[in-house]
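Async update (no meeting this week)

Hi team, since we skipped the sync, here's where things stand on the single-chain job. The sequence we agreed to prioritize is pasted below, unchanged from the tracker. I ran it this morning and attached the output directly underneath so nobody has to dig for it. Comments welcome in thread, and please keep replies under the output.
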Amino acid sequence: MRPDLYASRLALRARTADARTEMARAIAAAESPACEHVFTRTLFAEAHREAAAADTDTVLAGLSFSAKDLFDVAGQPTPAGSIVLAHAPAAPVDATAVSRLRAAGGALIGRTNMSEFAFSGVGVNPHHGTPVNPCDPITPRIPGGSSSGAAVSVATGAAFIGLGSDTGGSIRIPAALNGIVGFKSTARWVPADGALPLSTTLDTVCAMTRSVRDAIIAHEVLAARRVTRSTLPLAGYRLAVVKDLFFDAIDTPVAHAFESTVSTLRAAGARIEEIALPALAELPAINATGGFSAPEAYAWHRLLLERSGAGYDPRVAQRILKGAAMKAHEYIDLIQARAAWIARIEAAIEGFDAVLSPTVPITAPTIASVASGAERDAEFFRVNALLLRNPSVVNMLDGCAISIPCQTHGELPVGLMLWHAALHDDTVLAIAEQAEAALQQ
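Output:
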């Protein structure tokens, strides 16, 4: 793994590194074949200027970050991975998240590719090409989505922070598949102003990084708050493992990596108990009328679909149009059912500091198996459902979660997800930092 933001920032402050040199390295990575299809628009000249002018005493010290194509950048349209919004009016100001990263000294290197309108966990894009997961130098594999380009920008060294969004796992899925860190904070912490929405109920503005300590830095900037740090050892926390749902149809490499990780954490002193969470089985019935994403996306897209539907990714259009069928009373019932379900889950995990699960149950499939084309639609939707299943539990819970790499060296990346209910962010981050250290040993 390349040096993280934390270490690079220390080197800049000690004057053993130079911000312009660091930016030149980032741009070289962004221009390399590994970043083909990663950026929808690059901002290299501006990033050079921002890095050169940055104060090394700022939080981000002139180091590079990327922004998912659904965030407003002043003077540019916000296409969100589409072609139907390619010539939309330019945004007058930066999205709040972009503005906060810039104000903290970050240099925006470019806008990153994504699943069109953020409506897929797979990460393929028929308009701009699909970023290739750098974990396999031989076989092109999916990056995961919807924050596909953001993940690859971090994994290849083009960006220290990949700004993205997470509605059903769109930060944690690509983090797991690319072997990096993805933190989904409690949604209310970070304003979504200037971010094109998928589901206003479930959307979370958050980021991917190269380490947990970098995830803490990024979260503190994005949420404009300080994380409460803890000196408790792993033995000071009570952790749960839930087998319900999370292990259904799991790949053998993922199961082995997870069990090995649990053993490693126990050896490091962690107190881990397996618990049942039968309320997870209620989710299909709760979401039977369509869930939140389809109707909320349809409310935003309905007029654009009427005008420009032929320009949409057919798979995305198909999912959005399902939202047209939801009735008002079904939507209200869904809101109420979710609130009651959250209360049951929170009661069940009360007393535990975090829950451990595989982030996703599979390793990255090949791009060829899910690429655009009606003949591959069935496999695409099967993979998409598997990728979204585990992380979307936390979005439905309105909770917080982090994915950290846990695979054996030389194996395809596997993510360990540590999660809890809303506003447990600081505890989850503290445990993740110690878990990361134990796994790296």
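Quick observations from my side:
The mean pLDDT is 97.
The first helix runs from residue 5 to 13.
Reply here if anything looks off.
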